[in-house]
Every structure is written in C-alpha cells, then in structure tokens.
Amino acid sequence: MKAYVLTPDGPKLTQTDPPKPRPAEVLVRVRAAALNRVDLAMTRGHVHGGAGGEGAVLGLEWAGEVVETGPEVQGLAVGQRVMGSGAGAFGEFTTADYGGVWPIPDADMSFETAATLPVALRTMHDAVVTNGALQPGQAVMINGASSGVGLMGLQIARAMGAGLVVGSSTNPERRARLAEFGADLAVDPNDERWVGEVLEATEKRGVDLVVDQVSGPGLRRLMQATRVTGRIVNVGRLGGERAEFDFDLHAMRRIAYVGVTFRTRSRSEVREIVRKAREDLWAHLEAGRLSLPIDRVFPLDEVEQALARMKANAHFGKIVLSIP
C-alpha cells in the first residue's frame, strides 16, 4: 500500500505492507485523513503514545470503510463506513481497536468531513464533560478556541447546556469567527483587559470551567478568570510546557487543576471515553450540530505540502488528506 512512513532518512511517501488486524481490531480502507498538530512532531521522530517512531506510518485521524474484522470485534461489519483515531492514518489501510471506532453518522457525510471529527469529539467530551464536570447553566472558557479541537469544545459546551461559552484566540480574524461555533464572548489573551471582560460577563465570579490548550505563562491569568472552586482542565501546552505556578492564587481560589492526555490511557479507558462521548453526542452529530470547517483538502501525494501549511499556522479548521 502507499503510505507516509518515517524512514531512517526522514518521512517519505512509499510502498509498504498493509497492517494485519488483531483479534479486537478492524482493518480499514482509509479514504481520508485529517492532520493534527502532533503530526508535525511525529515527522521529527517523536513517539506519541503507541504511535510513531522509525518505520511507522504517520497520522492519527481517519475515515474509511471496514474491510476486515477480527474475531473479537463487536458492532462493526465489513463494508461499514467508519471514522476513528489511532496510528497509521496516512496510508491506504490502517487498523484500529473496535471500541475506539465511530460509525459515520450520516450516509451523505463525505469521508473528508468525517475524518475531521474523531479526535476533537473524544478529546473535548472527555475534557468538558468527564474531567470538567460541566453542569447545565455553568460558564465555560475554551483557551485556544480557534483550533479544530477548540472549535469542537465550544460546540460541545453549548450542546451540553453551558450558560455562557467563552473562547480565546490571539488572531483577530479567527477570533471574529468563534461566535459561529457557539462562543458568546471571544477574548484576546494578548490584551491585558481580557480577564476583566470575563469577570464582567460572569458578574465578577469567573468561569466555572476552563479547558486549556495553551498553558505556559498564561496560566496565572486563567486562574484569575476562574471562579472560586472552579476547574481548569489542561489538554494542551502550545504556549509552553513549563512556567511559574502561583501556588497562593491556586490555593486562594481553591481551583481543581486537572491534567489529561491520551498517551497514557489504556485501551479499555479509550473505549469508555468513546462510549461516553457517543452516548452524549450522537444525537447532536446526527442532527448536524457538531461539525468542523475544512480549511483545505490535499491528495495523499501532497502530504508534505499539507504538513507545511499546518506548520505555518495558515489554516482555520482542519487540513485533510484525500486517499482515493
């Protein structure tokens, strides 16, 4: 099969053997794959959980058709249109544990559209609902809201009954579009007034929940914008993995600070995360209330141009590879 593989000389589009499904896995003919920022690190040899490393097919998010099922697979059949996340998305075939696979919710949904959804759905449902403990009527802030995952976070917060949804972005054009995805208030983290804007919108209390994709030195101001006994769920570190931590402010506001990643999740944990997300979000998916914009579609032969566009941060929404 044709695939984008990390070789000793760097990533290359080449021919390789298709993978074989294990007993609890499906073999999928990939028709489209979506890019995620971690793909850039994996092209440099970084390992992401069980994905990546020399000899690996790169890519983490895909949509396609089931062509083979292992003997332990439940609820999926050969020929079914599916979407999912896991290793080996940038190739003509991939395998995945059946418990992490989603049926494509609409017969008319394209593979390119479906490929944009799995990572954002499971990541943000886990952050907003499971770890964020969102309750109807509460105020939620998605820090770093203009990414694909961030845009889905805004929509999930709205779908699950948030009373106020705040999104942040440093880019004015992207910030202006956050309202399309459910934001009541869009703030600029580079503007010193943003904490005051959030406090004013919440009658001086602060938001009940922050889902933070940025971290770094901006954490202190996030705590200032979080109510006493509120929660901050850290899902990303685009602003830096290390920064000073104001322990006194953290204690004074009695904030629950929760770190999450999929890199240390067991297969059974991922299955449960996907099960919960499907239970809460399936009706919204079927109704078309949860979606992400596609920035641009590249053929698999132009995977390096697609990655370059992501590295340049020139996109809004998802960059997708088409794999006919």
TrEMBL record:
Q: Which Pfam families match?
A: ADH_N, ADH_zinc_N
What's in the keyword line of the UniProt record?
A: NADP, Oxidoreductase
| InterPro entries assigned to the protein according to its UniProt record, in alphabetical order | ADH-like_C, ADH-like_N, ER, GroES-like_sf, NAD(P)-bd_dom_sf
Superkingdom of the source species: Bacteria
Q: Where is the stretch described as Disordered?
A: 1-22
Q: Give all residue intervals belonging to the Enoyl reductase (ER) domain.
A: 6-321
* UniProt-listed Gene3D superfamilies: Medium-chain alcohol dehydrogenases, catalytic domain (3.90.180.10), NAD(P)-binding Rossmann-like Domain (3.40.50.720)
**Protein name, please?**
Zinc-binding dehydrogenase
